[in-house]
Write the structure tokens for this entry.
Amino acid sequence: MMINWMVAVGLFILGVADFATKKVSLIVIGIWGIFGAALQLYLGELFCMPRIISILPGILLFLLARVSGEKIGYGDAWTILVMGIYLDVENLIAVGMIAITLSGLAALVLICICKKKRDYEMPFIPFVFAGYMAEQILFTVLV
């Protein structure tokens, strides 16, 4: 339960900042990551294989950020990497899939209805927050 709250609060703070400034604070991500690592260390799960596997999507995003010339921002990659400290890879992938779907739908609305150009930059972390909340609701309802 504590992990769920820490993820939700961290994503909310980062999402608001990303929406307002289109930047993600590495200081906030660092503090969030330290809390997550301390909690996992306390639980004895920081260095277990599932936790190590859970940070791989974040590492993959760093590679994509580099290859894409930062079309995917490094702040987004850091956020997903830190989420891997908190969440199992299955939950992280579910959150990512929901977030990508929501951001794609929002992009369609912005392009088709709001007449934005295809190169319009949208903050991604608010969609990650929405994806996390949706995943938590779906998990609660289905389990």
